[in-house]
Amino acid sequence: MFKHFSSMPAIGTDSIPALNVASVSKEYADNSVIEGINLSVGKGEFVALIGASGCGKTTLLRMCAGLEEPTSGSIEIFGKRPASATSAHEIGVAFQRPALVPSRTALENVRLTLKITAAKSGMDPLALLTNFGLADAIDRYPHQLSGGMQQRVNIACAIVHQPALLLLDEPFGALDEITRERLVDWLAGILRESSRTTLLVTHSVEEAITLSSRIFVMSRRPGRIAAEIKVTLPPVRDFAVRQSERFLELVRQTRDALHAAIVD
Amino acid sequence: MNSRIAAPLFVISALIIWYGVRWIGHLAPTVLPPPELVLSLMIQEWRSLLWNTSVTLATAITGYFFANVIAILLAIAFLYFDLLKSLATPWVVVLKNLPIVSVASLLIITFGDSPMPRILVVVLICFHPLLANLMKGFEQVDPNLIARFQTLHASRFQLFRYVLWPNALPYYAAAHEVAFTSSIVAAVLAEFFFSRQGLGFVLTQAMNDYRGDRLWATNIIIATLSAAALSISVLAERLLIPWQHSNGKKR
User: Fold this and answer.
1) How many domains does chain B have?
2) Interface A-B: count of C-beta contacts within 8 A
């Protein structure tokens, strides 16, 4: 049996949560995928969602992105339904597999996001890609980029229009360990600068602890929130912090919660 | 093999085979004339052959143009109107599988002695590979890409212009290699049935007159036109989908 966790908004945030998931359930043809999910993310927070494969993490993220409707319950993004947030271009999404237009270069892909959203306060695509370490690759097509480079372009496309909410679905899941570690560090630095509200779905405990301020652990299907773990670490989580006793303690705590969530 | 030597090698090998078959088979000139006789006829009758070639090309190109227009419009209509797709698909299948011989008589009765029946034959033969490949291209889009564009609240037009159409282009380009060369064959075939001009008509006349030299000359021209159509298709592919031919930077 699991307690249904209703999380408190982070201290110092606005009264309207950036993302509020209230008693959300999702069924496909009598098959319950997630059940009674409650979670809240404050403005500027980075929150991770972790759980076993098939527990409904991606389904929940897709509902937050407005790609699917919950069977019951509600999802609000800054007080709006996801469909309204989408039409206001307030959501940015990066999936595990980079979703880049094959016929456009890296720079053109990022520019395309601005063109579609007609963002008035978007970032400069060239500066963004340069900041992402891709200055030499702006004229390359996606098939000419490595997996890590494609994912950086993918994330650039997700944030160039300055969305209020960033949804990341295992963005580094398909990459090797070294590349993943480098990109986690890189992403931490990028998002720390912008204080963007972010929901990260991941399989990796270390990734979740390195990037987020709170971790929600989901049970196996039908997925529910089994535990919420506050990550009390310094904002900059470099190699030294990742070797600290506190970090390792959080890893143990999260793994224990995961095991408990799967076994129960 | 280097493409520069492939063509001359092909010509040389063809001549060797040609002379070889004549020598081994002792074939009469009406069946397999010597190459020099065919060349001589092509030089003597160049005006007539050029005129008939232009008639066949005009039929092929006109029919191919309309085949493309119909294929593109149908593919887009099928993409957005499922009911239309369900209703029209059986018709497409029937039209694709109808023997042209059976269709020819219907066309000539309906349209009489005009270019229309010949153009329609080209359309009927060419539109299906174009339509089928376009539809496949529209369907084979990465669902993640569509999902991302949906989260950006892209309009239907934006999704079509930036995702669906570019995704279909490689499939469309591949279809041209089949369809464009087929347009030449289709035009010649149509001229067999209802024409008093064009390369198909010249073939018919040559057969009736037992003129092997004219038959072979016409076939060489048809083969050359088909090879040119294939080369143009390959060039068009490079123009349509430059990103698949880039060597590192966009040109």
Assistant:
1) 1
2) 72
Q: Is residue B37 part of a domain?
A: no
Going from N- to C-terminal start, the domains of chain A cover 100-163
CATH classification of the domain holding B227? 1.10.3720.10
> What's the pLDDT tens digit per position in A132-165?
889 999 999 999 999 999 999 999 999 999 999 9
Chain A contact for B153 (CB, 8 A cutoff): yes
pLDDT band of B3, cuts 50, 70, 90: low
Structural domain contains residue B14: no
Q: Which two tokens stand for residue B137?
A: 């291209």
- The interaxial angle of helices B46-80 and B212-240, nearest 10 deg, is 40
φ and ψ at residue A169, rounded to 5 degrees: -105, 95
Taking contacts as CB-CB distances below 8 angstroms, the residues of chain A near B248 are 140, 144
Q: How many CB atoms lie within 10 A of CB A203?
A: 16
**Domain range for B172:** 44-244
CA distance B7 to chain A (A): 33
Are the Cβ atoms of B144 and A97 closer than 8 angstroms? yes
Q: Determine the Cα–Cα distance for residues A144 and A106; give it in Å rounded to an integer.
A: 10
User: Angle, nearest 10°, between helix axes B46-80 and B115-139?
Assistant: 40
Q: Does the beta carbon of B247 lie under 8 angstroms from any beta carbon of chain A?
A: no
Judge: A103–B169 Cβ closer than 8 Å, yes or no. yes
* CA atoms within 13 A of residue A89's CA, in its CB half-sphere: 20
Which candidate from A100, A116, A167 shows the least CB-CB separation from B158?
Answer: A116
Over residues A30-66, the pLDDT tens digits come to 888 999 999 999 999 999 999 988 889 999 999 999 9
User: In this predicted model, which residue has the larger pLDDT, B55 or B250?
Assistant: B55
Task: Report the Cα–Cα distance between both ends of chain A, in Å, rounded.
Answer: 7
Please choose, from the candidates A244, A218, A194, the residue with its C-alpha nearest in 3D space to the C-alpha of residue A55: A218
- CA–CA gap between residue A14 and residue A44 (Å, rounded): 10
Give the distance from residue B152's alpha carbon to the nearest chain A alpha carbon, in angstroms. Answer: 6
Q: φ and ψ at A74, to 5 degrees?
A: -140, 155
Q: Considering the domain boundaries, does residue B210 fall inside one?
A: yes
For residue A167 the two structure tokens come to: 């949804």
Looking at CA atoms only, how far is residue A100 from chain B in angstroms?
7
Beta carbons within 10 angstroms of residue A225's beta carbon: 26
Global pTM value:
0.85
Residue B4 lies in a domain: no
Residue with structure tokens 């980079």?
Answer: A98
Please check the confidence at residue B251 and state whether its pLDDT lies above 50: no
